[in-house]
Amino acid sequence: MKSELELRGVEQRFHARGVAAGHITAVDDVSFTLAAEPPQVVSLVGQSGSGKSTIARNVLGLQKPTAGSVLYGGKDIFKLSRSEYDEYRRDVQPVFQDPYAIFNPFYRVDRVLWKAVKKFGLTTSRSKGLQLIEESLRAVRLEPENVLGRYPHQLSGGQRQRIMLARVHMLRPSFIIADEPVSMLDAQVRKHFLDILLDFQREHGMTTLFITHDLSTVYYLGGEVMVITKGKIVERGPVSTVMHEPSHPYTKLLLDSIPQPDPDNRWTNRITVDELEDQEADAKAAAPAPETPII
Amino acid sequence: MRILTAVLRTIRNSPKLAIGLAILLVMVLVAIFSPLIVKGIGGSTDPLELAAYERWLVPGPDHLLGTDQFGRDVLAMVVSALSVSLQIGAIAGLISTVVGVIVAFVAGYKGGWIDGVLSTFTGILLVIPTFPLLIALSAYAKNVSLFQVGVMISIFSWPFAAKTIRAQVLSLRSRPYVDLARVSKARDLEIIATELLPNLLPFIGVGFASSALGAIFGLVGLEVIGLGPGGVIDLGQIIFNAINTGALTLGAWPMFVVPIVLLTLLFAALNMVNIGLEEVYNPRLRGVAGE
Ligand SMILES: Nc1ncnc2c1ncn2[C@@H]1O[C@H](COP(=O)(O)OP(=O)(O)OP(=O)(O)O)[C@@H](O)[C@H]1O
Ligand SMILES: [Mg+2]
Fold first, then answer.
1. Contact status of B179 with chain A (Cβ, < 8 Å)
2. By CB neighbour count within 10 A (0-12 exposed, 13-18 middle, 19+ buried), where does A236 fall?
3. Where do the TM regions start and end (chain B) (predicted)?
Protein backbone atom coordinates (compact mmCIF):
# COMPACT_ATOMS: atom_id res chain seq x y z
CA MET A 1 0.00 0.00 0.00
CA LYS A 2 1.32 3.41 -0.92
CA SER A 3 0.58 6.35 1.30
CA GLU A 4 1.15 10.02 1.50
CA LEU A 5 3.04 11.91 4.14
CA GLU A 6 1.70 15.36 4.75
CA LEU A 7 2.65 18.21 7.05
CA ARG A 8 -0.20 20.58 7.73
CA GLY A 9 0.60 23.89 9.37
CA VAL A 10 3.27 22.35 11.57
CA GLU A 11 4.63 24.65 14.23
CA GLN A 12 7.27 23.74 16.76
CA ARG A 13 8.08 26.02 19.65
CA PHE A 14 10.76 25.47 22.23
CA HIS A 15 11.06 27.12 25.58
CA ALA A 16 14.05 29.40 25.58
CA ARG A 17 15.51 31.70 28.17
CA GLY A 18 16.72 35.14 27.36
CA VAL A 19 14.24 35.59 24.52
CA ALA A 20 11.55 38.22 24.78
CA ALA A 21 8.72 35.80 24.01
CA GLY A 22 10.06 33.11 26.34
CA HIS A 23 10.17 30.67 23.45
CA ILE A 24 11.57 30.32 19.99
CA THR A 25 9.63 29.09 17.01
CA ALA A 26 11.89 26.56 15.32
CA VAL A 27 9.30 25.53 12.75
CA ASP A 28 6.70 28.04 11.69
CA ASP A 29 3.56 26.98 9.83
CA VAL A 30 5.19 24.47 7.54
CA SER A 31 3.06 22.50 5.11
CA PHE A 32 4.11 20.13 2.38
CA THR A 33 3.28 16.73 0.99
CA LEU A 34 5.52 13.83 0.13
CA ALA A 35 3.98 11.37 -2.26
CA ALA A 36 5.16 7.79 -2.41
CA GLU A 37 3.94 7.41 -5.94
CA PRO A 38 5.78 8.19 -8.11
CA PRO A 39 8.97 7.98 -6.04
CA GLN A 40 10.82 11.27 -5.84
CA VAL A 41 13.56 13.17 -4.08
CA VAL A 42 12.55 16.31 -2.26
CA SER A 43 15.36 18.36 -0.83
CA LEU A 44 15.00 20.72 2.09
CA VAL A 45 17.76 23.32 2.17
CA GLY A 46 18.48 25.99 4.69
CA GLN A 47 21.26 27.22 6.85
CA SER A 48 22.13 25.99 10.31
CA GLY A 49 19.39 26.58 12.86
CA SER A 50 16.66 27.10 10.27
CA GLY A 51 14.60 24.22 11.69
CA LYS A 52 15.44 21.40 9.27
CA SER A 53 16.24 18.76 11.86
CA THR A 54 13.21 19.72 13.86
CA ILE A 55 11.01 19.07 10.84
CA ALA A 56 12.70 15.70 10.38
CA ARG A 57 11.98 14.84 14.02
CA ASN A 58 8.36 15.90 13.59
CA VAL A 59 7.96 13.75 10.51
CA LEU A 60 9.59 10.78 12.25
CA GLY A 61 7.28 11.11 15.22
CA LEU A 62 10.18 11.81 17.57
CA GLN A 63 8.85 15.23 18.48
CA LYS A 64 5.20 16.19 18.71
CA PRO A 65 4.64 19.57 17.05
CA THR A 66 3.12 22.27 19.23
CA ALA A 67 0.58 23.01 16.52
CA GLY A 68 -0.49 21.57 13.21
CA SER A 69 -0.23 17.93 12.34
CA VAL A 70 1.79 15.33 10.51
CA LEU A 71 -0.45 13.02 8.57
CA TYR A 72 0.37 9.56 7.28
CA GLY A 73 -2.21 8.16 4.92
CA GLY A 74 -4.47 11.02 5.99
CA LYS A 75 -4.24 10.25 9.72
CA ASP A 76 -2.37 12.14 12.45
CA ILE A 77 0.75 10.09 13.27
CA PHE A 78 0.31 10.73 16.99
CA LYS A 79 -3.19 9.26 16.95
CA LEU A 80 -2.65 6.08 15.02
CA SER A 81 -4.06 2.74 16.05
CA ARG A 82 -1.63 -0.03 16.89
CA SER A 83 -1.57 -1.57 13.43
CA GLU A 84 -1.50 1.80 11.67
CA TYR A 85 1.41 2.82 13.88
CA ASP A 86 3.32 -0.33 12.99
CA GLU A 87 2.79 0.37 9.34
CA TYR A 88 3.84 4.01 9.69
CA ARG A 89 7.00 3.02 11.56
CA ARG A 90 8.01 0.57 8.93
CA ASP A 91 7.13 2.91 6.09
CA VAL A 92 8.94 6.06 7.29
CA GLN A 93 12.58 5.51 8.19
CA PRO A 94 15.48 7.85 8.89
CA VAL A 95 19.11 8.23 7.96
CA PHE A 96 20.69 10.57 10.47
CA GLN A 97 23.50 13.04 10.18
CA ASP A 98 26.20 11.73 12.47
CA PRO A 99 27.44 8.27 11.51
CA TYR A 100 29.41 8.13 14.76
CA ALA A 101 26.65 8.88 17.24
CA ILE A 102 24.06 6.71 15.54
CA PHE A 103 25.60 3.52 16.92
CA ASN A 104 25.52 2.69 20.57
CA PRO A 105 29.25 2.27 21.33
CA PHE A 106 28.39 -0.60 23.62
CA TYR A 107 27.27 -2.99 20.89
CA ARG A 108 28.48 -4.49 17.63
CA VAL A 109 27.11 -2.87 14.48
CA ASP A 110 25.19 -6.03 13.56
CA ARG A 111 22.76 -5.20 16.30
CA VAL A 112 20.95 -2.41 14.44
CA LEU A 113 20.37 -4.76 11.52
CA TRP A 114 19.16 -7.61 13.70
CA LYS A 115 16.89 -5.19 15.56
CA ALA A 116 15.33 -4.28 12.23
CA VAL A 117 14.80 -7.96 11.43
CA LYS A 118 13.23 -8.73 14.77
CA LYS A 119 11.25 -5.58 15.53
CA PHE A 120 9.65 -5.52 12.13
CA GLY A 121 9.17 -9.26 11.93
CA LEU A 122 11.06 -9.66 8.66
CA THR A 123 11.67 -13.29 9.48
CA THR A 124 11.86 -15.50 12.53
CA SER A 125 14.56 -17.77 11.21
CA ARG A 126 18.11 -16.91 12.09
CA SER A 127 19.62 -18.13 8.85
CA LYS A 128 17.03 -16.28 6.81
CA GLY A 129 17.72 -13.14 8.85
CA LEU A 130 21.44 -13.39 8.21
CA GLN A 131 20.73 -13.89 4.53
CA LEU A 132 18.61 -10.73 4.47
CA ILE A 133 21.30 -8.76 6.28
CA GLU A 134 24.03 -9.91 3.91
CA GLU A 135 21.89 -9.22 0.90
CA SER A 136 21.19 -5.66 2.09
CA LEU A 137 24.83 -5.03 2.93
CA ARG A 138 25.81 -6.06 -0.60
CA ALA A 139 23.09 -3.78 -1.97
CA VAL A 140 24.92 -0.84 -0.43
CA ARG A 141 28.24 -2.21 -1.64
CA LEU A 142 29.56 -3.41 1.68
CA GLU A 143 31.19 -6.80 2.13
CA PRO A 144 29.35 -8.49 5.01
CA GLU A 145 32.55 -10.09 6.31
CA ASN A 146 34.18 -6.66 6.56
CA VAL A 147 31.54 -5.15 8.78
CA LEU A 148 29.63 -7.85 10.66
CA GLY A 149 30.94 -8.56 14.13
CA ARG A 150 32.72 -5.22 14.38
CA TYR A 151 32.25 -2.43 16.84
CA PRO A 152 31.27 1.00 15.50
CA HIS A 153 34.66 2.57 16.23
CA GLN A 154 36.28 -0.01 14.00
CA LEU A 155 34.45 1.23 10.90
CA SER A 156 34.79 4.36 8.82
CA GLY A 157 32.11 7.04 8.70
CA GLY A 158 31.16 6.05 5.16
CA GLN A 159 30.85 2.39 6.13
CA ARG A 160 28.66 3.24 9.07
CA GLN A 161 26.41 5.48 7.05
CA ARG A 162 26.04 2.72 4.48
CA ILE A 163 25.04 0.31 7.22
CA MET A 164 22.21 2.70 7.94
CA LEU A 165 21.32 2.53 4.26
CA ALA A 166 21.45 -1.27 4.45
CA ARG A 167 18.97 -1.05 7.29
CA VAL A 168 16.70 1.06 5.09
CA HIS A 169 17.17 -1.44 2.29
CA MET A 170 15.97 -4.23 4.56
CA LEU A 171 12.88 -2.37 5.67
CA ARG A 172 11.95 -0.96 2.22
CA PRO A 173 10.08 2.04 3.58
CA SER A 174 8.17 4.25 1.16
CA PHE A 175 9.78 7.30 2.76
CA ILE A 176 13.36 7.96 3.78
CA ILE A 177 13.90 10.98 6.00
CA ALA A 178 17.58 11.78 5.52
CA ASP A 179 18.82 14.55 7.81
CA GLU A 180 22.14 15.78 6.43
CA PRO A 181 23.30 12.20 5.87
CA VAL A 182 26.39 13.17 3.90
CA SER A 183 27.55 16.29 5.68
CA MET A 184 30.18 14.37 7.58
CA LEU A 185 31.47 12.36 4.65
CA ASP A 186 34.16 13.34 2.17
CA ALA A 187 33.28 14.16 -1.41
CA GLN A 188 33.86 10.74 -2.92
CA VAL A 189 32.05 8.79 -0.24
CA ARG A 190 29.32 11.38 -0.44
CA LYS A 191 28.72 10.76 -4.12
CA HIS A 192 28.69 7.03 -3.47
CA PHE A 193 26.02 7.52 -0.83
CA LEU A 194 23.85 9.72 -3.03
CA ASP A 195 24.04 7.21 -5.86
CA ILE A 196 22.76 4.48 -3.58
CA LEU A 197 19.91 6.75 -2.54
CA LEU A 198 19.03 7.37 -6.20
CA ASP A 199 19.19 3.62 -6.82
CA PHE A 200 16.75 3.06 -4.00
CA GLN A 201 14.41 5.57 -5.55
CA ARG A 202 14.55 3.85 -8.93
CA GLU A 203 14.68 0.21 -7.92
CA HIS A 204 12.63 0.12 -4.76
CA GLY A 205 10.40 3.12 -5.27
CA MET A 206 11.48 5.01 -2.19
CA THR A 207 10.72 8.69 -1.77
CA THR A 208 13.39 10.67 0.05
CA LEU A 209 13.13 13.88 2.04
CA PHE A 210 16.72 14.99 1.76
CA ILE A 211 17.77 17.60 4.28
CA THR A 212 20.96 19.51 3.59
CA HIS A 213 22.61 22.89 3.74
CA ASP A 214 24.73 22.08 0.74
CA LEU A 215 23.38 23.18 -2.64
CA SER A 216 25.71 21.02 -4.70
CA THR A 217 24.10 17.88 -3.31
CA VAL A 218 20.72 19.36 -4.17
CA TYR A 219 21.85 19.84 -7.78
CA TYR A 220 23.14 16.32 -7.88
CA LEU A 221 19.95 14.75 -6.58
CA GLY A 222 17.60 16.82 -8.69
CA GLY A 223 13.88 16.59 -8.13
CA GLU A 224 12.09 19.11 -6.00
CA VAL A 225 13.58 21.53 -3.54
CA MET A 226 12.20 23.54 -0.66
CA VAL A 227 14.11 26.42 0.84
CA ILE A 228 13.65 27.07 4.52
CA THR A 229 14.76 30.00 6.62
CA LYS A 230 13.89 30.79 10.22
CA GLY A 231 11.44 27.93 10.34
CA LYS A 232 9.46 29.05 7.29
CA ILE A 233 9.51 27.53 3.84
CA VAL A 234 10.05 30.51 1.56
CA GLU A 235 10.44 28.89 -1.81
CA ARG A 236 9.69 25.57 -3.44
CA GLY A 237 9.78 24.06 -6.88
CA PRO A 238 11.85 21.94 -9.25
CA VAL A 239 15.58 22.18 -8.54
CA SER A 240 16.42 23.66 -11.94
CA THR A 241 13.82 26.43 -11.66
CA VAL A 242 14.62 27.39 -8.10
CA MET A 243 18.34 27.41 -8.70
CA HIS A 244 18.24 29.36 -11.96
CA GLU A 245 15.41 31.74 -11.22
CA PRO A 246 15.18 32.13 -7.46
CA SER A 247 12.20 34.25 -6.48
CA HIS A 248 12.81 34.76 -2.79
CA PRO A 249 15.67 37.04 -1.70
CA TYR A 250 16.88 34.44 0.77
CA THR A 251 17.30 31.85 -1.97
CA LYS A 252 19.35 34.37 -3.96
CA LEU A 253 21.48 34.95 -0.92
CA LEU A 254 21.94 31.23 -0.45
CA LEU A 255 22.94 30.83 -4.09
CA ASP A 256 25.35 33.73 -3.91
CA SER A 257 27.00 32.41 -0.80
CA ILE A 258 28.30 29.23 -2.38
CA PRO A 259 31.46 29.39 -4.42
CA GLN A 260 30.75 29.09 -8.14
CA PRO A 261 27.45 27.31 -8.25
CA ASP A 262 27.88 25.70 -11.59
CA PRO A 263 25.36 22.90 -11.86
CA ASP A 264 26.36 21.87 -15.36
CA ASN A 265 29.96 21.17 -14.53
CA ARG A 266 29.61 19.52 -11.18
CA TRP A 267 29.22 15.77 -10.95
CA THR A 268 27.50 15.76 -14.29
CA ASN A 269 27.71 12.04 -14.82
CA ARG A 270 24.41 11.30 -13.12
CA ILE A 271 22.13 14.21 -13.83
CA THR A 272 20.40 14.15 -17.17
CA VAL A 273 17.82 16.61 -18.28
CA ASP A 274 15.27 13.84 -18.74
CA GLU A 275 15.56 12.76 -15.18
CA LEU A 276 15.04 16.25 -13.90
CA GLU A 277 11.99 16.77 -16.06
CA ASP A 278 10.43 13.52 -14.93
CA GLN A 279 10.68 14.59 -11.37
CA GLU A 280 9.45 18.06 -11.99
CA ALA A 281 6.02 16.69 -12.71
CA ASP A 282 5.50 15.50 -9.14
CA ALA A 283 4.63 16.81 -5.78
CA LYS A 284 3.11 20.18 -5.81
CA ALA A 285 2.92 20.77 -2.12
CA ALA A 286 -0.39 21.88 -0.81
CA ALA A 287 -0.38 24.48 1.91
CA PRO A 288 -3.64 24.62 3.82
CA ALA A 289 -3.99 26.86 6.84
CA PRO A 290 -3.19 25.49 10.30
CA GLU A 291 -6.27 24.00 11.95
CA THR A 292 -5.09 23.54 15.47
CA PRO A 293 -5.10 26.70 17.53
CA ILE A 294 -1.75 27.77 18.85
CA ILE A 295 -1.32 26.97 22.50
CA MET B 1 30.79 -11.28 28.63
CA ARG B 2 31.08 -7.97 26.86
CA ILE B 3 30.64 -6.19 30.17
CA LEU B 4 33.34 -8.31 31.76
CA THR B 5 35.93 -7.61 29.09
CA ALA B 6 35.03 -3.93 29.16
CA VAL B 7 35.51 -3.89 32.92
CA LEU B 8 38.84 -5.70 32.70
CA ARG B 9 40.06 -3.36 30.00
CA THR B 10 39.04 -0.37 32.08
CA ILE B 11 40.88 -1.66 35.14
CA ARG B 12 44.02 -2.36 33.19
CA ASN B 13 44.03 1.20 31.90
CA SER B 14 43.81 2.82 35.30
CA PRO B 15 46.20 2.03 38.14
CA LYS B 16 44.11 4.13 40.53
CA LEU B 17 41.05 2.08 39.82
CA ALA B 18 43.01 -1.15 40.19
CA ILE B 19 44.55 -0.18 43.56
CA GLY B 20 41.24 1.10 44.91
CA LEU B 21 39.44 -2.05 43.86
CA ALA B 22 42.20 -4.26 45.32
CA ILE B 23 41.98 -2.58 48.74
CA LEU B 24 38.21 -2.86 48.66
CA LEU B 25 38.41 -6.51 47.69
CA VAL B 26 40.67 -7.31 50.66
CA MET B 27 38.35 -5.47 53.03
CA VAL B 28 35.28 -7.19 51.64
CA LEU B 29 36.98 -10.58 51.96
CA VAL B 30 37.87 -9.84 55.60
CA ALA B 31 34.27 -8.78 56.18
CA ILE B 32 32.85 -11.89 54.56
CA PHE B 33 35.08 -14.18 56.55
CA SER B 34 34.82 -12.15 59.75
CA PRO B 35 32.88 -14.86 61.67
CA LEU B 36 35.66 -17.34 60.86
CA ILE B 37 38.40 -14.86 61.72
CA VAL B 38 36.73 -14.00 65.02
CA LYS B 39 36.46 -17.70 65.82
CA GLY B 40 40.08 -18.20 64.94
CA ILE B 41 41.13 -15.41 67.30
CA GLY B 42 39.04 -16.68 70.19
CA GLY B 43 39.66 -20.40 69.90
CA SER B 44 37.31 -22.01 72.42
CA THR B 45 36.04 -18.71 73.91
CA ASP B 46 34.01 -16.08 72.08
CA PRO B 47 36.37 -13.07 71.94
CA LEU B 48 33.40 -10.68 71.63
CA GLU B 49 31.74 -11.90 74.83
CA LEU B 50 31.78 -9.46 77.78
CA ALA B 51 34.54 -10.42 80.21
CA ALA B 52 35.93 -12.99 77.85
CA TYR B 53 39.41 -11.94 78.98
CA GLU B 54 40.92 -9.53 81.43
CA ARG B 55 40.17 -5.83 80.96
CA TRP B 56 42.56 -3.42 79.32
CA LEU B 57 45.23 -5.91 78.32
CA VAL B 58 47.98 -4.20 76.29
CA PRO B 59 48.77 -5.52 72.83
CA GLY B 60 50.75 -8.75 73.00
CA PRO B 61 51.08 -12.13 71.34
CA ASP B 62 47.75 -13.39 72.75
CA HIS B 63 45.84 -10.26 71.90
CA LEU B 64 47.49 -8.49 69.01
CA LEU B 65 45.51 -5.31 69.64
CA GLY B 66 44.82 -5.79 73.35
CA THR B 67 41.40 -5.87 75.04
CA ASP B 68 38.83 -3.19 75.88
CA GLN B 69 37.06 -2.01 79.02
CA PHE B 70 34.83 -5.09 79.03
CA GLY B 71 37.62 -7.55 78.35
CA ARG B 72 36.82 -8.12 74.68
CA ASP B 73 39.51 -8.77 72.11
CA VAL B 74 40.00 -5.56 70.11
CA LEU B 75 41.19 -7.26 66.93
CA ALA B 76 38.09 -9.42 66.86
CA MET B 77 35.93 -6.38 67.50
CA VAL B 78 37.57 -4.39 64.75
CA VAL B 79 37.16 -7.23 62.26
CA SER B 80 33.46 -7.65 62.97
CA ALA B 81 32.93 -3.88 63.12
CA LEU B 82 34.52 -3.55 59.69
CA SER B 83 32.03 -6.06 58.44
CA VAL B 84 29.17 -4.10 60.02
CA SER B 85 30.39 -0.80 58.56
CA LEU B 86 30.70 -2.31 55.10
CA GLN B 87 27.27 -3.88 55.33
CA ILE B 88 25.70 -0.57 56.30
CA GLY B 89 27.54 1.07 53.43
CA ALA B 90 26.36 -1.62 51.04
CA ILE B 91 22.74 -1.44 52.19
CA ALA B 92 22.58 2.35 52.14
CA GLY B 93 24.57 2.48 48.89
CA LEU B 94 22.28 -0.05 47.23
CA ILE B 95 19.07 1.65 48.31
CA SER B 96 20.41 5.07 47.36
CA THR B 97 21.58 3.85 43.99
CA VAL B 98 18.36 2.05 43.13
CA VAL B 99 16.17 4.96 44.23
CA GLY B 100 18.56 7.45 42.65
CA VAL B 101 18.66 5.57 39.35
CA ILE B 102 14.89 5.23 39.17
CA VAL B 103 14.28 8.88 40.00
CA ALA B 104 17.02 9.96 37.62
CA PHE B 105 15.65 7.89 34.75
CA VAL B 106 12.06 8.95 35.22
CA ALA B 107 13.08 12.58 35.52
CA GLY B 108 15.77 12.61 32.86
CA TYR B 109 14.11 10.42 30.28
CA LYS B 110 10.54 11.63 30.59
CA GLY B 111 11.50 15.28 30.93
CA GLY B 112 8.79 17.94 31.05
CA TRP B 113 6.87 18.64 34.24
CA ILE B 114 7.77 15.24 35.72
CA ASP B 115 11.40 16.23 35.55
CA GLY B 116 10.55 19.60 37.06
CA VAL B 117 8.80 18.09 40.07
CA LEU B 118 11.36 15.36 40.70
CA SER B 119 14.36 17.66 40.24
CA THR B 120 12.93 20.22 42.61
CA PHE B 121 12.26 17.52 45.19
CA THR B 122 15.77 16.11 44.80
CA GLY B 123 17.19 19.60 44.98
CA ILE B 124 15.35 20.34 48.22
CA LEU B 125 16.68 17.16 49.81
CA LEU B 126 20.16 18.07 48.64
CA VAL B 127 20.22 21.46 50.35
CA ILE B 128 18.54 20.37 53.59
CA PRO B 129 21.29 19.97 56.18
CA THR B 130 20.97 16.25 56.70
CA PHE B 131 23.24 15.85 59.70
CA PRO B 132 20.90 17.52 62.24
CA LEU B 133 18.04 15.52 60.78
CA LEU B 134 20.01 12.32 61.22
CA ILE B 135 20.71 13.28 64.82
CA ALA B 136 17.01 13.84 65.38
CA LEU B 137 16.16 10.54 63.73
CA SER B 138 18.70 8.62 65.74
CA ALA B 139 17.14 9.93 68.94
CA TYR B 140 14.16 7.78 68.07
CA ALA B 141 16.27 4.88 66.99
CA LYS B 142 17.80 3.49 70.11
CA ASN B 143 17.77 -0.21 69.46
CA VAL B 144 17.75 -0.66 65.75
CA SER B 145 19.04 -3.38 63.48
CA LEU B 146 21.86 -2.97 61.05
CA PHE B 147 19.43 -2.97 58.16
CA GLN B 148 17.32 -0.22 59.69
CA VAL B 149 20.39 1.95 60.16
CA GLY B 150 21.24 1.46 56.51
CA VAL B 151 17.73 2.45 55.40
CA MET B 152 17.71 5.46 57.70
CA ILE B 153 20.91 6.81 56.26
CA SER B 154 20.01 6.10 52.66
CA ILE B 155 17.02 8.43 52.97
CA PHE B 156 19.53 11.23 52.89
CA SER B 157 22.05 9.88 50.45
CA TRP B 158 19.94 8.92 47.42
CA PRO B 159 19.57 12.48 46.07
CA PHE B 160 23.32 12.58 45.45
CA ALA B 161 23.14 9.49 43.30
CA ALA B 162 20.02 10.80 41.55
CA LYS B 163 21.60 14.12 40.69
CA THR B 164 24.72 12.69 39.08
CA ILE B 165 22.86 10.07 37.11
CA ARG B 166 20.12 12.41 35.91
CA ALA B 167 22.73 14.65 34.31
CA GLN B 168 24.08 11.63 32.44
CA VAL B 169 20.63 10.46 31.38
CA LEU B 170 19.95 13.91 29.99
CA SER B 171 23.08 13.82 27.90
CA LEU B 172 22.47 10.26 26.70
CA ARG B 173 18.76 10.70 26.03
CA SER B 174 19.31 12.92 23.02
CA ARG B 175 21.88 10.62 21.42
CA PRO B 176 20.93 9.63 17.90
CA TYR B 177 21.07 5.94 18.80
CA VAL B 178 18.16 6.52 21.16
CA ASP B 179 16.20 8.04 18.27
CA LEU B 180 17.16 5.10 16.10
CA ALA B 181 15.86 2.71 18.75
CA ARG B 182 12.63 4.67 18.90
CA VAL B 183 12.02 4.48 15.17
CA SER B 184 12.79 0.78 15.49
CA LYS B 185 9.76 0.46 17.78
CA ALA B 186 11.70 0.00 21.02
CA ARG B 187 9.71 0.85 24.12
CA ASP B 188 10.82 3.33 26.77
CA LEU B 189 11.80 0.65 29.27
CA GLU B 190 13.67 -1.29 26.63
CA ILE B 191 15.57 1.82 25.60
CA ILE B 192 16.47 2.58 29.20
CA ALA B 193 17.62 -0.98 29.88
CA THR B 194 19.48 -1.72 26.65
CA GLU B 195 20.61 1.63 25.24
CA LEU B 196 21.13 3.85 28.27
CA LEU B 197 21.93 1.61 31.21
CA PRO B 198 25.05 -0.06 29.78
CA ASN B 199 26.58 3.32 29.08
CA LEU B 200 25.68 4.51 32.54
CA LEU B 201 27.26 1.63 34.46
CA PRO B 202 30.39 3.56 35.44
CA PHE B 203 28.31 6.46 36.74
CA ILE B 204 26.06 4.11 38.64
CA GLY B 205 29.23 2.61 40.13
CA VAL B 206 30.39 6.06 41.17
CA GLY B 207 26.95 6.81 42.62
CA PHE B 208 27.05 3.60 44.63
CA ALA B 209 30.56 4.19 45.92
CA SER B 210 29.85 7.78 46.95
CA SER B 211 26.62 7.04 48.73
CA ALA B 212 28.11 4.00 50.49
CA LEU B 213 30.98 6.17 51.62
CA GLY B 214 28.60 8.91 52.72
CA ALA B 215 26.55 6.43 54.72
CA ILE B 216 29.54 4.88 56.49
CA PHE B 217 31.00 8.23 57.44
CA GLY B 218 27.64 9.73 58.32
CA LEU B 219 27.18 6.98 60.86
CA VAL B 220 30.71 7.37 62.19
CA GLY B 221 30.06 11.09 62.60
CA LEU B 222 26.93 10.43 64.62
CA GLU B 223 28.67 7.90 66.81
CA VAL B 224 31.76 9.94 67.51
CA ILE B 225 29.61 12.65 69.03
CA GLY B 226 27.82 9.97 71.00
CA LEU B 227 24.55 10.06 69.12
CA GLY B 228 24.80 6.83 67.20
CA PRO B 229 21.87 4.49 67.15
CA GLY B 230 22.40 1.72 69.71
CA GLY B 231 22.42 -1.90 68.83
CA VAL B 232 25.09 -2.05 66.12
CA ILE B 233 28.83 -2.01 66.66
CA ASP B 234 30.58 -0.57 63.66
CA LEU B 235 33.96 1.12 63.40
CA GLY B 236 32.55 4.44 64.60
CA GLN B 237 31.18 2.82 67.73
CA ILE B 238 34.64 1.49 68.62
CA ILE B 239 36.17 4.93 68.12
CA PHE B 240 33.48 6.42 70.34
CA ASN B 241 34.26 3.79 73.00
CA ALA B 242 37.91 4.57 72.82
CA ILE B 243 37.29 8.30 73.26
CA ASN B 244 34.72 7.77 75.98
CA THR B 245 36.82 5.47 78.12
CA GLY B 246 40.07 7.33 77.66
CA ALA B 247 41.56 4.24 76.07
CA LEU B 248 44.57 6.18 74.81
CA THR B 249 45.72 7.06 78.33
CA LEU B 250 45.42 3.42 79.32
CA GLY B 251 47.81 2.30 76.62
CA ALA B 252 45.01 0.81 74.50
CA TRP B 253 45.85 2.96 71.50
CA PRO B 254 44.94 0.33 68.88
CA MET B 255 41.28 0.70 69.84
CA PHE B 256 41.44 4.25 68.58
CA VAL B 257 44.03 4.07 65.83
CA VAL B 258 43.14 0.87 64.02
CA PRO B 259 39.49 1.79 63.21
CA ILE B 260 40.65 5.18 62.01
CA VAL B 261 43.31 3.64 59.77
CA LEU B 262 40.71 1.26 58.35
CA LEU B 263 38.24 4.07 57.69
CA THR B 264 40.94 6.16 56.04
CA LEU B 265 41.90 3.23 53.86
CA LEU B 266 38.27 2.69 52.91
CA PHE B 267 37.87 6.37 52.12
CA ALA B 268 41.00 6.35 49.98
CA ALA B 269 39.99 3.17 48.19
CA LEU B 270 36.48 4.32 47.31
CA ASN B 271 37.74 7.66 46.16
CA MET B 272 40.41 6.06 44.00
CA VAL B 273 37.68 3.99 42.38
CA ASN B 274 35.60 7.12 41.79
CA ILE B 275 38.44 9.14 40.36
CA GLY B 276 39.67 6.19 38.33
CA LEU B 277 36.26 5.65 36.76
CA GLU B 278 35.81 9.30 36.03
CA GLU B 279 39.18 9.51 34.39
CA VAL B 280 38.52 6.52 32.21
CA TYR B 281 35.11 7.76 31.11
CA ASN B 282 35.93 11.43 31.00
CA PRO B 283 39.23 11.56 29.14
CA ARG B 284 39.47 15.31 29.52
CA LEU B 285 40.36 14.74 33.17
CA ARG B 286 43.15 12.34 32.38
CA GLY B 287 46.52 13.62 33.43
CA VAL B 288 44.95 16.69 35.00
CA ALA B 289 43.41 14.97 37.95
CA GLY B 290 46.23 12.56 38.52
CA GLU B 291 49.66 11.36 37.48
N1 LIG C 1 15.04 20.24 21.86
C2 LIG C 1 15.20 21.56 21.64
N3 LIG C 1 15.02 22.44 22.65
C4 LIG C 1 15.16 23.76 22.44
N5 LIG C 1 15.50 24.31 21.26
C6 LIG C 1 15.70 23.49 20.22
C7 LIG C 1 15.56 22.07 20.36
N8 LIG C 1 15.83 21.50 19.16
C9 LIG C 1 16.12 22.52 18.32
N10 LIG C 1 16.05 23.70 18.95
C11 LIG C 1 16.24 25.03 18.34
O12 LIG C 1 15.46 25.11 17.19
C13 LIG C 1 16.15 25.78 16.14
C14 LIG C 1 16.21 24.90 14.91
O15 LIG C 1 17.03 23.79 15.19
P16 LIG C 1 17.29 22.63 14.13
O17 LIG C 1 18.15 21.62 14.79
O18 LIG C 1 16.00 22.16 13.60
O19 LIG C 1 18.11 23.40 13.01
P20 LIG C 1 18.79 22.81 11.70
O21 LIG C 1 18.22 23.55 10.57
O22 LIG C 1 18.70 21.33 11.69
O23 LIG C 1 20.30 23.25 11.90
P24 LIG C 1 21.64 22.46 11.51
O25 LIG C 1 21.88 22.68 10.06
O26 LIG C 1 22.67 23.13 12.35
O27 LIG C 1 21.44 21.04 11.87
C28 LIG C 1 17.51 26.14 16.70
O29 LIG C 1 17.46 27.49 17.09
C30 LIG C 1 17.66 25.24 17.88
O31 LIG C 1 18.43 25.87 18.88
MG1 LIG D 1 20.13 19.71 11.82
1. yes
2. buried
3. 17-38, 74-105, 117-140, 146-165, 200-222, 256-277
